């Protein structure tokens, strides 16, 4: 049925049956109804029929034969106490066709301004309807029905949106899994092939293979960043597996790896981190690697890169400092935005995910990365407050009270 949804929505409003009952008892009208009225249809959505008028939910009248058709056009209520004494309707075809003497119909206008239908009543006897009390009651009930219909519509939209989001979430997770599998497998094959070739080539060939290993490592880093971006934006977010551990070995491991790959660059490390920190070592290594890689890419090649790390009971801080041209002022607000790069040389362009992922890792740890850039140096500072142990706070408070 074309209007089954509208009928179901009215049926779902528990107050409608009470409204029809109150209208009937208050006015004495023998037939009351909520009708869905369109340009070419008049459909009963709910009714109370003490006249055996014969209309139940789903039944239809020719819309042209009803006064509701005129109400849809004017959006004004029609109230008739006695058809035979009403100059406007005594000769109207509708009362004669349906045999009523009293009639009242009020439009149901939805909050968005659209016309739904009418709350109407008829009776073969004259009734006193055109009073402020009766008209006010009908208008109030019509507004109540409209509000319920709007709430039902919003609820349905919300449920549909949630269902679509659940479906999209499943598709996103599948996409992320396939993305990781399809990108990493070929790269693993290339790495395996390069390791085999290293045993069968001369020194010049090994030099070329070393360059290829560097390209493979960069590609692996790009894949990791893309995967992390997909998870943070499309999946379940940045996941951590934190435990308490020393900060210095994490930092020095990454520094050592960069020194092997970039043997022509000087990296100065100043790490004073006696306090253990609660971190996901893999994620923190990834963040630090991105920051150090950024410094090597954009820093002056003949100037050293400085690493400063400190930890204490209040938290820890890591700074990566490089010399070279400052970051353009217009690029500073977008440093940690995905897919945004500053004005750099053509061969330095990339996806622009490294700093975004680093910031996400910092935030997942409850920290923040900031940047300053002057003619003298560019400094990226990752600051992390020590996690608050709520149970310790409560215990300390109890002891203090005692």
Task: Tag the structure with descriptive keywords.
alpha+beta, elongated, about 45% helix, six-stranded antiparallel sheet, Heat Shock Protein 90, about 400 residues, five-stranded mixed sheet, Beta-Lactamase, disordered C terminus
Description of the structure:
This is histidine kinase. It is a single chain. The chain is α+β, with helices and mostly antiparallel strands. The protein has helices at 4-11, 15-27, 68-74, 93-98, 132-198, 203-234, 247-261, 281-298, 354-364, 390-401; strands at 31-37, 42-49, 60-61, 78-80, 102-109, 115-123, 243-245, 267-272, 277-279, 305-312, 315-322, 367-373, 378-385. The protein has a six-stranded antiparallel sheet with strand order 3-2-1-6-5-4. A five-stranded mixed sheet has the order 8-10-11-13-12, with helices on one face. Strands 7-9 form a two-stranded antiparallel ribbon. A hairpin with a 4-residue loop joins strand 1 (31-37) and strand 2. Helix 5 (132-198) runs antiparallel to helix 6. The longest helix is centred in the middle third of the chain and has 67 residues, at 132-198.
Question: In a nutshell, what does this entry contain?
Answer:
It holds the Pfam family HATPase_c. By secondary structure, the chain is an alpha+beta fold.
